[in-house]
Amino acid sequence: MGGKLSAPRRERIHERQWTDVFETHEEDVSGFNERFVGCEDELSSGEISCTVVEEKCYDPQDATLTFVEGDDDLDFLCEDYKSLRAKMSCGHAVTPMSLTIWCRHLLDSGKCNFVCGQTDCDVEWPFEEVYKMALLTEEEVEYFEKTVFSNAGKDYLGVKSLC
Fold first, then answer.
1. Is residue 163 part of a domain?
2. Structural domain tally of the chain?
3. What pTM was estimated for this model as a whole?
4. Residue 120's domain spans which residues?
5. Residue 151 falls within a domain, yes or no?
6. pLDDT tens per residue, range 62-90
7. Residue 75 lies in a domain
8. Beta carbons of 42 and 13 less than 8 angstroms apart
9. Which residues contact residue 119 at a Cβ distance below 8 angstroms, ignoring those fewer than 6 apart?
10. Residue 128 and residue 133: Cα distance in Å, rounded?
């Protein structure tokens, strides 16, 4: 029969293969954990392209953070990130990954400010707090700054996107 595997079957086979790899090779290296994110469609070569991101984790020795026990209040997708939880200025617990994802969601939704995602919590976080608590990379800082500026221009100045 040959031919291509159906997408669901290809995903199940691939997931089993990568689950074995990540369960046996997951290590905490310099404050990061590798995390399997997902696969793209099969490439023309027959290979499947997978994306692995390094999970950002707080340094337990960072005395500038207030660590708390309990759930990650911004982990809406139940990813169960491995990092310690730290308290934001609003009092909610986050991990660097959940905070990064939440703030990226806000920006991608056209917002130009960072507001807590918990019900009945309308605390707005300054960029400096997001930068520090999300452990933003240089690339993320550049994306966040560019998107905040673009969204603010659209909201407050009526600037239209050229794209």
1. no
2. 2
3. 0.67
4. 57-158
5. yes
6. 999 999 999 999 999 899 999 999 999 99
7. yes
8. no
9. none
10. 9
